[in-house]
C-alpha cells in the first residue's frame, strides 16, 4: 500500500525534515509505464549545485526552509509587468467567493473549517492586492469564458488538491452544479482495485467545454513498482522522469500547474517504499542521494522537460507553483507545534524576491512561469486548519493545510491573472 498524507509511527523523522500529519490521499495506485526521459545527471546536478548556497533565513520563513528550501540562495523573480507576489492583504466585503458552509459537491469536509468548532472567520475576509498593478476580481463566468474548449490541470501533492478543490468552488460559486460531467476516465483517473480513491479527478463544464483536473503526484517524478508481481514491492521514483501522466496527457492540457515540496523527507520515502532511481537504475550519486539534492534535481528535471515540450504544444501555458508554507510554532507537528493565531502575521509583502528560491531559480531561463504564492501565504499563519481538523489526534494540529474558503483561493486568483 502506498502511504501519502498520513502519520506513520514506525519511522522517526528528523526534526528539520518532519512533516505534519497530512489527512488525505492515503492510498494510491501507480501506472507501470516504463518509458523514461533521458537526462545527463552530472550536468544537471552541477547546475543545481551552482545555485546552492546557505539560505539567509528570515524569522518567518525559517520553518518552511527547514523542510522545503535546502541549500539555495534567494533568487530574483524574473522581471515581468507585474510582480503578483508583492503587495498587501486588504479587507474585502466581497470575500469569500463561496460559502464555507456550502460547496459540498467539491470541498472535502476536513478542509471546510466552517463545519468545525472554529469560531473565528476573519481569515475569509481578506483580499490580496498586488503593489504595482491592478488585479481584476475573479468570476466563474470570466474564467470559463477564458477557458473555452480548454483543460486546466493541477499536478502535485495535497496542497495541489486544495488548490483544485478551491478552484472548483470558485468557478461554481459553491452552488450545486449537476450538469458538470465527471470525465476522469478520459484521463485514466478511474479508481484502481484496492485503492481508497483514484489518483485524481477531472470534471468538465459542458457549456464552455472547460475541463479542470487534478492528478496526485507528490514528488513530481515518475513512480512505478520495481516488481509489479509482488505485493510487497518497492517503488522506483525516477528522479529524471516526469510523471507518466504528463507524458500521456500533456497534448490535452492548455494550462498546467505543478507543485511539490512537503513529501521530500525520509519518513515519507521509507513509508511509501520509494527508492531513488536515475537513468533507469538505483541512484548511486551521493550528491543526489540526500533529500535536498534529490528534490532540487527532480524539480529541475521536470521543469526542463516541460520547457522542452512547450514548442510542440504552442497553446500550453505551464506554471510551477512555489511552496506553500507551514506554520508550526513552539514545536513540530509531533512535538506540540501549534498555529492558534486568529490574526495574520502581517498584511504586507514588500520584497522583490521570491520566498521560495528553489522554485524561482529552477524556472529561470525557461518558459515555465513561477506562480509565486509563498511570501503572501507566509504572513497568513491564521489561515491553517489548526486544531480544528476533523481527523487530528488530540494535541496535534494541522499547520500545513489551509481552511477553505481561504488562502488557496488567492493562489487561483493569481493564476487566473497570469493566464
CATH 4th-level superfamily: SGNH hydrolase
Q: What would you say the CATH architecture is?
A: 3-Layer(aba) Sandwich
Q: What is the average per-residue confidence, as pLDDT, rounded to a whole number?
A: 83
Supply the number of structural domains.
Answer: 1
SSE arrangement:
Blueprint: H1 41-50, H2 62-68, E1 87-91, E2 126-130, H3 140-146, E3 151-156, H4 158-172, E4 181-182, E5 200-205, E6 210-216, E7 222-225, E8 235-238, H5 244-249, E9 255-258, H6 266-272, E10 274-278, E11 281-282, H7 286-289, H8 291-309, E12 317-321, E13 348-349, H9 357-363, E14 369-371, H10 374-378, E15 384-386, E16 398-402, H11 407-418
Parallel strand pairs: 3-6, 3-9, 8-10, 9-12, 12-14
Antiparallel strand pairs: 1-2, 1-13, 4-5, 5-6, 7-8, 10-11, 15-16
Q: What would the keywords be for this entry?
A:
Rossmann fold, 4-stranded mixed sheet, disordered N terminus
What does this 3D model show about the protein?
This protein has 419 residues and is an alpha/beta fold. The chain is built from eleven helices and 16 strands. 24% of the residues lie in helices and 16% in strands. The protein has helices at 41-50, 62-68, 140-146, 158-172, 244-249, 266-272, 286-289, 291-309, 357-363, 374-378, 407-418, and strands at residues 87-91, 126-130, 151-156, 181-182, 200-205, 210-216, 222-225, 235-238, 255-258, 274-278, 281-282, 317-321, 348-349, 369-371, 384-386, 398-402. Helix 4 (158-172) crosses helix 11. The protein has one domain (41-418): SGNH hydrolase (Rossmann fold, 3-Layer(aba) Sandwich), CATH 3.40.50.1110. Mean pLDDT is 83; it is low at 1-73. The strands form four sheets. Strands 4-5-6-3-9-12-14 form a seven-stranded mixed β-sheet, sandwiched between helices. It has a four-stranded mixed β-sheet with strand order 7-8-10-11. It has a three-stranded antiparallel β-sheet with strand order 2-1-13, with no helix packed on it.
Amino acid at each position: 500500500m502506498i502511504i501519502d498524507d498520513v502519520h506513520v509511527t514506525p519511522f522517526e523523522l528528523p526534526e528539520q525534515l518532519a512533516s505534519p500529519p497530512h489527512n488525505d490521499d492515503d492510498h494510491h495506485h501507480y501506472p507501470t509505464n516504463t518509458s523514461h526521459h533521458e537526462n545527463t545527471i552530472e550536468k544537471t546536478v552541477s547546475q543545481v549545485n551552482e545555485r546552492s548556497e546557505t539560505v539567509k533565513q528570515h524569522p518567518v520563513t525559517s520553518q518552511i526552509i527547514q523542510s522545503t528550501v535546502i541549500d539555495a540562495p534567494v533568487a530574483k523573480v524574473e522581471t515581468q509587468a507585474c510582480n503578483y507576489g508583492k503587495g498587501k492583504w486588504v479587507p474585502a466585503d466581497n470575500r469569500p467567493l463561496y460559502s464555507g458552509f456550502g460547496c459540498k459537491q467539491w470541498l472535502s469536509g476536513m478542509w471546510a473549517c466552517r463545519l468545525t468548532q472554529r469560531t473565528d472567520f476573519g481569515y475569509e475576509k481578506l483580499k490580496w492586492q498586488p503593489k504595482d498593478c491592478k488585479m481584476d476580481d475573479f468570476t466563474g463566468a470570466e474564467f470559463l469564458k477564458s477557458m473555452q474548449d480548454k483543460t486546466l490541470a493541477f499536478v502535485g501533492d495535497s496542497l495541489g488538491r486544495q488548490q483544485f478543490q478551491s478552484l472548483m468552488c470558485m468557478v461554481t460559486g459553491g452552488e450545486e452544479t449537476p450538469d458538470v460531467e465527471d470525465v476522469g476516465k478520459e484521463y485514466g483517473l478511474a479508481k484502481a482495485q484496492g485503492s481508497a480513491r483514484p489518483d485524481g479527478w477531472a470534471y468538465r463544464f459542458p457549456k464552455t467545454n472547460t475541463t479542470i483536473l487534478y492528478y496526485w503526484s507528490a514528488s513530481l517524478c515518475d513512480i512505478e513498482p520495481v516488481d509489479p508481481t509482488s505485493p510487497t514491492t518497492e517503488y522506483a521514483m525516477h528522479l529524471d522522469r516526469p510523471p507518466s501522466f504528463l507524458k500521456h496527457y500533456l497534448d490535452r492540457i492548455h494550462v498546467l500547474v505543478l507543485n511539490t515540496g512537503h513529501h521530500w523527507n525520509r519518513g515519507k520515502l521509507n513509508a511509501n517504499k520509494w527508492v531513488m532511481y536515475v537513468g533507469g537504475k538505483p541512484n548511486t550519486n551521493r550528491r543526489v542521494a540526500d533529500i535536498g539534492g534529490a528534490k532540487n534535481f527532480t524539480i529541475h528535471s521536470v521543469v526542463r522537460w516541460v520547457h522542452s515540450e512547450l514548442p510542440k504544444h504552442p497553446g500550453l501555458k505551464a506554471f510551477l507553483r512555489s511552496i506553500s508554507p507551514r506554520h508550526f510554532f513552539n514545536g513540530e507537528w509531533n512535538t506540540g507545534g501549534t498555529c492558534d493565531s486568529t490574526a495574520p502575521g502581517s498584511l504586507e509583502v514588500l520584497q522583490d524576491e521570491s520566498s521560495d528560491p528553489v522554485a524561482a531559480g529552477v524556472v529561470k531561463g525557461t518558459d515555465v512561469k513561477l506562480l509565486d504564492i509563498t511570501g503572501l501565504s507566509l504572513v497568513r499563519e491564521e489561515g491553517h486548519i489548526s486544531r480544528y481538523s476533523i481527523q487530528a489526534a488530540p494535541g496535534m494540529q494541522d499547520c500545513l493545510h489551509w481552511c477553505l474558503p481561504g488562502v488557496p483561493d488567492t493562489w487561483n486568483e493569481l493564476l487566473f491573472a497570469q493566464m
